[in-house]
Amino acid sequence: MVIAMRRGIVFAALGALALLTGAPSAIAAQSATDDLNPPPPTFLTCTIVGEGTICSGTRERVEEPVDTGIVCGDGAEAFHIFDQGVEHQRLTIWYDGEGNIERVLNHERWTSASWSNPLTRAAVPYTQSNIITTDFAVAGDFNSATETTVGELIFTDPQTGRKVLRTVGRSVLDPEDGRVLFLAGKQPFFSGEPSLFEGLCAAVASQQNDKQRRRQPRRLMQ
């Protein structure tokens, strides 16, 4: 089995900073958003509190199938794993008195989510819940930010009910370059060890093989 790893997959792919990079301009009618750096996403409502500003809001986002970068199997038997699901997000951003970003708190939960082989539609569902906090040592300076994620991600084989992959714990990253500053708990996505994904790959492959067998015509009895 060969697995091409990519950092974080679903677990960190939508960290708080990713929401702010290239965010659309704030609604002009909301004076609390004037001169905020960077402008908050437009689904947030902003309120001036003391000398600073707090922006918060919720949304749902459907993620269509996207390649995770993980490949299961070898040669002709190899297949890419795709991810999809529905993200339920609650986001809060704090700005200082000069309008510079100080902190981001992102609660996210995923439902109707799975990893799959889109060619065969074989899939393994997962549940996920994260709290992602981004703190700026210097307000407005993205080079000074650290991103802390705590939560749980569990994949379950739909045929056996067995948990085939689990991520749980805490990670601290440099969100600019993805450098790992601290890890605690069970964190297979940061291990670089392909064997940790064998159970998940086997679960998808077994469904794939079952579907292939069901498509084969039955032999007539002699």
Element layout with pairings:
Blueprint: H1 9-13, H2 16-20, E1 45-49, E2 52-72, E3 79-95, E4 101-117, E5 122-136, E6 145-156, E7 163-174, E8 179-186, H3 198-215
Antiparallel strand pairs: 1-2, 2-3, 3-4, 4-5, 5-6, 6-7, 7-8
Keywords: Signal
Signal peptide: 1-28
Question: How would you describe the overall organization of this protein?
Answer:
- The chain is mostly beta strands and 222 residues long.
- It has one domain.
- 13% of the residues lie in helices and 48% in strands.
- It contains 3 helices and 8 strands; from the N terminus they run ααββββββββα.
- It has helices at residues 9-13, 16-20, 198-215; strands spanning 45-49, 52-72, 79-95, 101-117, 122-136, 145-156, 163-174, 179-186.
- Strands 1-2-3-4-5-6-7-8 form an 8-stranded antiparallel sheet.
- Strand 5 and strand 6 (145-156) form a beta hairpin.
- The radius of gyration is 21 Å and the shape is elongated.
- The two termini are 40 Å apart.
- Residues 1-18, 21-30 and 211-222 have low confidence and may be disordered.
What are the key terms here?
disordered N terminus; 8 strands; 222 residues; mainly beta; elongated; eight-stranded antiparallel sheet
Class by SSE composition: mainly beta
The DSSP helix count reads: 3
| Portion in beta strands | over 45%
| Total count of domains | 1
* Average predicted local confidence, pLDDT: 81
Spatial gap, N to C terminus = 40 Å
Low-confidence stretches: 1-18, 21-30, 211-222
The biggest beta sheet reads:
8 strands, antiparallel
Write the H/E string, N to C: HHEEEEEEEEH
Fraction of helical residues? 10-25%
Keywords: Signal
